[in-house]
Amino acid sequence: MPDPNVNTVAEHIQQHLIDPEICIRCNTCEETCPQDAITHDSRNYVVDAATCNACNACISPCPTGAIDNWRQVAKVQAYTLEEQLSWDELPAPVAADANDTTEFPEEVNRLEAEVVLGQGGSAVAPWSATKPAINLFGVRAPAIATVSGNFRLTGPTATADVRHIVLDFGNAAFPVLEGQSIGILPPGTDASGKPHYLRLYSVASARDGERSGHNNIALTVKRVTEDHAGRPVAGVASNYLCDLAKGDTVRVVGPYGSTYLMPNHAGSNLLMICTGTGSAPMRAMTEWRRRRQGTGETGELMLFFGARVADELPYHGPLLKLPSGFIDVNLAFSRATDQPRRYVQDAIRDREADVARLLADGETHIYICGLKGMEAGVDDAFGEACRGHGLDWTTLRPEMLAQGRYHVETY
Amino acid sequence: MSINYSEKIPNNVDLGSDRSLQRALEHWQPAFLDWWGDMGPDGTASTDVYLRTAVSVEPGGWAHFDHVKMPDYRWGIFLNPADADRRIPFGEHKGEAAWQEVPGEHRANLRRIIVTQGDTEPASVEQQRHLGATAPSQYDLRNLFQINVEEGRHLWAMVYLLHRYFGRDGREEAEALLQRRAGDQDNPRILGAFNEQTPDWLSFFMFTFFTDRDGKFQLCALAESAFDPLARTTRFMLTEEAHHMFVGESGIARILQRTCETMVQHRTDDPAKLRALGVVDLPTIQRYLNFHYSVTLDLFGADVSSNAAIFYSAGIKGRFEEGKLTDDHLLKDATYPVIEVVDGKLTMREAPALNALNEKLRDDYIRDTVAGVGRWNKVMLKNGIDFQLTVPHKAFNRMIGSLAGVKVTPDGRVVSAPEWEAGTREWLPTPEDRVHVQSLMGRVVEPGKFANWIAPPPMGVNKQPVDFEYVRFN
Q1: Which of A292, A320, B67, B239 has the most CB atoms at less than 10 Å from its CB?
Q2: CATH of the domain at B41
Q3: ipTM
Q4: Which of B220, B249, B237 is nearest to B54 (CA)?
Q5: What topology is assigned to A143-256 in CATH?
Q6: Which residues of chain A does B56 touch, with a Cβ-Cβ cutoff of 8 Å?
């Protein structure tokens, strides 16, 4: 999640508010809030801006969706509890200061809150993570990047079109760390005439550039041709990105993300589980570790990577070329011809002893990224690995979360 | 073949390590699935439903949304995290460490309370099992099914307590929970309101708003219990109960919205015209409200009850938000006002507070309910319709306690039996009302489409669009 303090630089905060028109006063949020930031009277439930740390623990238990409202306000003008208690409906959003170029887009908060839901609480960064830069470019003054490459990653037989897109930032300072995301602003407007929402993409390249020493980054983008329900729909941002030609310019905002970051200390292990384009942060972290070989930033790397078929697995070829002494790669294909369906959790089960050994190691950091559907299966597989080896996943997981060693981004 | 329950049943009670519990559940689970097959939502075995499954008690464990077949739903067993220092907050054992096992002298009472609570869970699934055939939209159908699986999970929660803490008696009670049937003449559910029918969606929304709210207050009172596993179980159930009340509150609000729109569009408040236009007229909604409100008030039990006093003093069942009350939490000399009928008039008298705990919980419930009805009334205000819903007098249409047998109008006048008979058509749903509401019920299954009598919700489930395919019929 964005560090709420970051915005104080611009004297603005994202104030968390509850929609009194939709709220049913069930008390769940107040019961859930680890900060005791939520209170109520006989009329409304309200959030104390001075106490709320935007950990989002209250978001998913809310049965109504009323809880998920954010307003960008100048810090000194945050709505007081008294004001909120008097509302019958939320106030209209106030137009941000025209000179402020770094407002935190509401869409980023929403998307970030959504992707980390599966980790079971607010995460912290590993202690040895590099301090990230956040929100350097806002919607009003985005960075302009130039496309320097756009390649298809999936094989000729694959139905999915997954592409590796390289963006060059020229002279603009756009520092990113592995695990961070950037926002893409597609040009044009939607059916109702509003500019398209920004879309977040995890960076697939290491911090010193897709090509070491260059001011460029890589993205792994799947062309969206249907929605989660399988109905045909053309994803605005993904189709825009996938159709870009070398030399085209792209409006980029960000970077975002302050917790899904890799550890940099000696002996820190990375246990990575991903599906499809969820491989982007894993590629970035693996590449950074590869470039740092010989510098003492050691530790085991173990990867579980799932796709429908081998031809749809991004970076399949390069991945297989990495030496097994550097990274332990385990692939799972759910639709390979003439083979039973195999998912990442099945691959984890096959390697239960080694997974348990890593879980028992206090230097292991878990990174999960991919479709929401994988969460429960992976969680079960970890649970089983623990049980078989004298560990208790139900206590280990929150412990790892609190120590910045358990990170989930699913969508 | 033995079943690994830790795999099948998400839990935080370390099921895998308790072999006797595992054996008990191995015996009970097939019976539960048989019951679900027989009495659960009708004709849904192969339907994929976009459900929220709780897989852990942490906030993030709530957000597992996916399409699942209902019989494959992972009914989990969750207790809120333990607080090793938890003290009993009220009663004669106030200040002592909370109980981790059942004290012998309270065994029968605790079992009875757990069985009574547990019995309501499968009962409401049974009451609602035919509603899927007349759902006004995919969105609503999904919400119905979500409620059904969560009632099923609440049954699991109570059965876990019975199996884990009450030995053979508990196992027998767990069996019996699957054998009683809502509305069955020979073997009915324990509480009256859970043997009523839920014949249409207006009743369903009223039931989830009013009767599930009774569940909220009962669970809140049990969440204070000295018996720690019960307190932790009910605390977690409350989060799910909130969704049920949301479905009720928003469902009625959407019906009101559609009726108001139609009234404005056709410039009429004539119930006959509105019925012809295919919506539910506001007086009918008021009559349904009167019925569900009064039937639910009876669920709190007799206004003066020695059992309530025993449960409180023993530490078994507390008050709503016990921790926020600032009295001595013993109530030895305190009094509480209850209604009495003297010379044909309703008067208030002070009863010992310990004996009036049902009444106190009922009054807390009434406050919560009135606030919700106030939110419904904003729909009329926004549409410029001069009509406000009200809750009837507390003594209206009551069948339990000192008010049973007294005929009281919605505005609180005691009347004779003939006057009551003459008034009921105005106060309670008539057969014609029910026929009209029933005539509106027709299944709408196309994503994003809604029956004429109900407005779409302002937002979808889990940030999905309103026209999301919430249910896939295979």
Answers
A1: B239
A2: 1.10.620.20
A3: 0.82
A4: B237
A5: Elongation Factor Tu (Ef-tu); domain 3 (2.40.30)
A6: 120, 394
